[in-house]
Automatic annotation (TrEMBL):
Residue span(s) of domain ACT: 353-430
Pathway entry: Amino-acid biosynthesis; L-threonine biosynthesis; L-threonine from L-aspartate: step 3/5; Amino-acid biosynthesis; L-methionine biosynthesis via de novo pathway; L-homoserine from L-aspartate: step 3/3
Protein name: Homoserine dehydrogenase
Keywords annotated in UniProt: Amino-acid biosynthesis, Methionine biosynthesis, NADP, Oxidoreductase, Threonine biosynthesis
Swiss-Prot/TrEMBL catalytic activity: L-homoserine + NAD(+) = L-aspartate 4-semialdehyde + NADH + H(+)
Length: 434
């Protein structure tokens, strides 16, 4: 069979990894695809020292790649929303299939991109956009296609998981760990995307869409970062039998779709609680299959290239097949996408961890318990920490049962206004994932 020709746009960490995997594993890849896959051209601004470019044609202008008549598949590995979007839309316009690792682009502009691709009869593949090397898109879109998916939850940002793990295990400083994640090539160009949960929200938006057959709704995803997680919260959570993870969580409820990213206490015996370092993990519950768990590297050259190249192989295998033979971009037929509403965070129900700083005097605990009970909030566990130094404040740590967020907000406001309470209450949501 005629070889398939690929044009790569971007030769950074992921572009370099993709070049090397396609080159180093060319024999096995050809055996899987049933034909050779050749890198025809690379658009790059700077050489990548990890890549021996050899005789492959290079250009500084992405337009050369998307208009190259010899190229069948354009691989967009630039990132961001500007040039990357032009590359993807331009390639589609020129009738080329696209592979991208760009979660931001898919989460924000996916609907427009997929509509353009469907009109042209080409495919846009994006396995590498979520959880790097874990084939989670394929697992949900194809492997679990028989199921009514009930919920999913994931550690889908390696940088954030690395920071929380190092804080817990080594008591390391936040900024120091972040700098290491940047040096290792895990962090986004703008690391606030990692730390503030935006990167995870992009990925969760995509997962929810293919799990339930709903439109991509990044703008409705509630997002809270890990920059305010204090070392004492990590310590107290452990004392209560929990770990703090930065989770993306989504479920179907009777009121709508729950879609949120925030630091979360999860019971330490849950397998996902033990996924540490830069690893990612996603757990998906389907009505037929029950709970499933996928763990692996979520970032880095090799793992992300593994997903990019798998998409290239899939396309190469079906290049001459009619468009109707391809898997739907968002797993469900575009005619049957269900416009379910995403719940505002105030309507979401979860359990809570509260850390309240109080003066150490008689009746304080009773007044907090009374205030919570007046808001119909049920306490599950409670510990009190004596002041560590003279004139210091005592800390009361409370775990509650599930309650709607709006009610918890009102209760927090009431407790904060008690005379004995100092400053703001720390609130972290708790999920049991059962
Ligand atoms: N910055 C991302 C992470 C890279 O840390 O997980 C992979 O999307």
């Amino acid at each position: 069979m005629k070889p398939v020709k690929v044009g790569i746009c971007g030769l950074g960490t992921v572009g370099g990894g993709t070049f090397n995997v396609l080159t180093n594993n060319a024999k096995d890849i050809a055996r899987r695809a049933g034909r050779d896959i050749i890198i025809e051209q690379v658009a790059m601004r700077h050489p990548n020292p990890a890549v021996e470019i050899g005789s492959v044609k290079t250009t500084e202008d992405v337009a050369d790649v998307i208009s190259n008549p010899d190229i069948d598949i354009v691989v967009e590995l630039i990132g961001g929303y500007t040039v990357a979007k032009d590359v993807v839309m331009g390639a589609i316009e020129n009738g080329k299939h696209v592979v991208t690792a760009n979660k931001a682009l898919i989460a924000v502009y996916g609907s427009e991109i997929f509509a353009a691709a469907e009109a042209k009869g080409v495919s846009v593949m994006y396995e590498a956009a979520v959880a790097g090397g874990i084939p989670i898109i394929k697992a949900i879109r194809e492997g679990l296609a028989a199921n009514h998916i009930n919920w999913l939850a994931g550690i889908i940002n390696g940088t954030g998981n690395f920071i929380l793990t190092e804080m817990r295990d080594k008591g390391r400083d936040f900024a120091d760990v972040l700098a290491e994640a940047q040096a290792l090539g895990y962090a986004e160009a703008d690391p606030t995307f990692d730390v503030e949960g935006i990167d995870a929200a992009h990925k969760l938006t995509i997962l929810a869409s293919i799990a339930y057959g709903i439109p991509l709704q990044f703008e409705h995803c509630y997002t809270e970062g890990i920059s305010k997680v204090a070392p004492e919260d990590v310590e107290y959570a452990e004392e209560l039998g929990y770990r703090i993870k930065h989770l993306g969580i989504s479920s179907r409820t009777e009121k709508g779709i729950d879609l949120r990213v925030h630091p979360t206490l999860i019971p330490e015996h849950r397998p996902i609680a033990k996924v540490d370092g830069v690893l990612n993990a996603v757990t998906v519950n389907g009505d037929a299959v029950g709970d499933t768990l996928y763990v692996g590297a979520g970032a880095g050259a090799g793992p992300t290239a593994s997903a990019v190249v798998a998409d290239i192989i899939d396309l190469a295998r079906t290049l001459e097949a009619p468009a109707s033979a391809s898997v739907n971009h968002l797993a469900f037929d575009s005619e049957s996408i269900d416009n379910l509403r995403v719940l505002p965070i105030e309507q979401v129900e979860t359990a809570y961890y509260l850390r309240i700083q109080v003066q150490d005097r008689t009746g304080v605990l009773a007044s907090i318990a009374t205030t919570l009970s007046e808001h119909d909030i049920n306490i599950e566990a409670l510990i009190q920490k004596e002041p560590r130094m003279e004139n210091d404040l005592a800390q009361i740590i409370i775990l509650t049962h599930k309650v709607e967020e709006a009610r918890m907000n009102a209760a927090i406001e009431a407790v904060e206004s008690l005379d004995s309470t100092h400053g703001k209450i720390t609130r972290i949501r708790v999920e049991h994932l059962d």
